[in-house]
Design a protein that fits this description.
The chain folds into two domains: 217 residues, 3-Layer(aba) Sandwich (Isopropylmalate Dehydrogenase); 131 residues, Isopropylmalate Dehydrogenase (3-Layer(aba) Sandwich), CATH 3.40.718. It is built from eleven helices and twelve strands. The longest helix is centred in the N-terminal third of the chain and has 19 residues.
Length: 352
């Protein structure tokens, strides 16, 4: 029997609840296809801190390096905001985890589901046909540059080298080849030196992909275009901070952060998979959190890191059936709790 090994990090807040639902669905899918799950559950973030450990414990890091496939619930919360910056869950766990696994490419899909059109602030005509992916560079830029204070001031340094831009651009063009054949690169090249390097390097990479179109859009203009002509986009490529902002804006088009998965990838099969929503400590323990994004993140892990496309298809089809049939949580108009949604989707996987 084929084994599917991965590291499971429930994390903080609602992470353990949505994670349990996803693991239940994975278990059903594994049973359906005759696989055995090898789940190595580890602590991360605030949960690790509360257990007297570092935000990213040595055992957790060893596990993710060994398996190369990581399913993460959520990290952080106001409970730990009083800690020194480097000891907080988000900074002390997520950033070094990305660095250690060399997870330089984050992808987040944006394809509004028909049942959620009424949950967005946009008119339906702006959402018809929207189907794009944001590819964000994860390990460079201002988040990883030198930073500090100087007297009454403070500074953050933004750096990129050509190789960092080239590898993420190449990944974006390869993805666009598999989709509709267009890359929209977002920068601020009229002001920033790093963006001038970004645009120059993207154009250089584009020469190797003659069948993929490329356009360049400034970040300030892109915040408008994403709301007014989202149908025009296929693969949106951008740097770390701009991607952080644009992916949250894109979630508005989908009607709910609770249905959007994400994957952080390296070269080859290593990957970190997590929902885009936060830890939501205000609703933790109430069995009301939406597990769809977590379940779809698990499906991405199965597809991209574990290499089981049919199993991923089965999970995604079950999620689609749940959403179409209204078997969802209250935040998107359904009557079910977190665990109920997980059970419904797991049962659907087994029955179809």
């Amino acid at each position: 029997m084929t084994s599917l090994p991965f590291t499971y990090l429930p994390g903080d807040g609602i992470g353990p609840e949505v994670g349990a639902a996803a693991v239940a669905v994975l278990g059903a899918a594994a049973d359906k296809f005759g696989y055995t799950l090898e789940i190595d559950e580890q602590l991360i973030g605030g949960a690790a801190i509360d257990a007297g450990k570092a935000p990213l414990p040595a055992g957790t890091l060893a596990s993710v390096i060994e398996t190369g496939a990581v399913l993460l619930g959520a990290v952080g919360g106001p409970k730990w905001d009083s800690l020194p910056r480097e000891d907080r869950p988000e900074v002390g766990a997520l950033l070094p985890l990305r660095k250690q696994l060399n997870l330089y490419a984050n992808i987040r899909p944006c394809k509004p589901h028909p049942m959620l059109i009424d949950h967005t602030p946009l008119k339906p005509e702006y959402l018809d046909g929207v189907d794009f992916i944001v590819m964000r560079e994860l390990t460079g830029g201002i988040y990883f540059g030198a930073k500090g204070t100087d007297g009454l001031g403070a500074y953050d340094e933004c750096r990129y080298c050509e190789a960092e831009v080239e590898r993420i651009a190449r990944k974006a063009f390869i993805l666009a080849e598999q989709r509709r054949g267009k890359v929209t690169s977002v920068d601020k090249s009229n002001v920033l030196a790093t963006s001038q390097l970004w645009r120059k390097t993207v154009n250089k990479v584009a020469e190797g992909f003659p069948d993929v179109g490329v356009e360049h859009v400034l970040i300030d203009a892109m915040t408008m275009h994403m709301l007014t002509r989202a149908q025009d986009f296929d693969v949106i490529l951008t740097e770390n901070m701009f991607g952080d902002i644009l992916t949250d804006e894109a979630s508005v088009l989908c009607g709910s952060m609770g249905v959007i998965p994400s994957a952080s990838l390296s070269d080859g099969t290593p990957g970190l998979y997590e929902p885009i929503h936060g830890s939501a400590p205000d609703i933790a323990g109430r069995n009301t959190a939406n597990p769809v994004a977590m379940i779809l993140s698990a499906a991405l892990m199965v597809r991209l890191s574990l290499g089981e496309g049919l199993m991923a298809d089965s999970i995604e089809a079950a999620v689609e059936a749940a959403m179409t049939g209204g078997h969802v949580t209250a935040d998107i108009g359904g009557p079910l709790g977190t665990s109920d949604v997980g059970r419904w989707i797991a049962d659907y996987v087994l029955q179809t």
